[in-house]
């Protein structure tokens, strides 16, 4: 709750997937709104569970870093068993939300838990933990489709999912640049350390991939003009602004640009929502 950006970044791919499926199936507006609210609650709960898992894995690493040593587990304010008990509560609530969906979606949603648990370990193993985060954080692009349709429309959902993973790598690399000194001290890896002074052109490639795959997903879903103007065009413009303005050597700038991805998610959603609203009103 303190820094809701993580919840927004988890939620937006869900909202995109739901709205694209609602558009293709002419879903009633009340059902669309119910799914958006349900997934919003789920995003809040599961982002919290992810934070708990991360802090449990990173307790000893956090103790070495000035910025993180006062976290509850690292400081000893709570003990691992208390964290595990709290995680059990969070996951129980998440399961309760998941069971509101169809069986296909229940199994699809549950299958992402291994990624959520494994992600915090990846920074010890590979310079690409951001890719694993992307696989976990954007599962909602698939789940949103199946929640509405009763199955996943893979032709539409997979490009959306793959593009969203590229988006996550881009924004989380910017986030990781603010922590790169701490990461070196703690002995953990990230794409910020891997890309180093080549970060900007590499992120331009990931950003282009996101925009292109987003457009492909919309084309396969027969989206209307609002999607291409607002969602695709708006995302391209916003990502260009991010790459142009981000100072990768300044913590404040990295945080500002990272946090602005909440707005990028809203921009993409706006075009999808306009298309769906026009369809629901019989204007398309």
UniProtKB/TrEMBL annotation:
Question: Can you list the GO cellular component terms from the UniProt entry?
Answer: mitochondrial inner membrane
Pfam families tied to this protein? UbiA (PF01040)
**Top enzyme class of this protein?**
transferase
Q: Which GO terms describe its molecular function?
A: 4-hydroxybenzoate polyprenyltransferase activity
Spell out the InterPro entries in the cross-references: HB_polyprenyltransferase-like (IPR006370), Prenyltransferase (IPR039653), UbiA_prenyltransferase (IPR000537), UbiA_prenylTrfase_CS (IPR030470), UbiA_sf (IPR044878)
This enzyme catalyses: an all-trans-polyprenyl diphosphate + 4-hydroxybenzoate = a 4-hydroxy-3-(all-trans-polyprenyl)benzoate + diphosphate
Q: What is this protein called?
A: 4-hydroxybenzoate polyprenyltransferase, mitochondrial
Record organism:
Leucosporidium creatinivorum
Lineage of source species = Eukaryota, Fungi, Dikarya, Basidiomycota, Pucciniomycotina
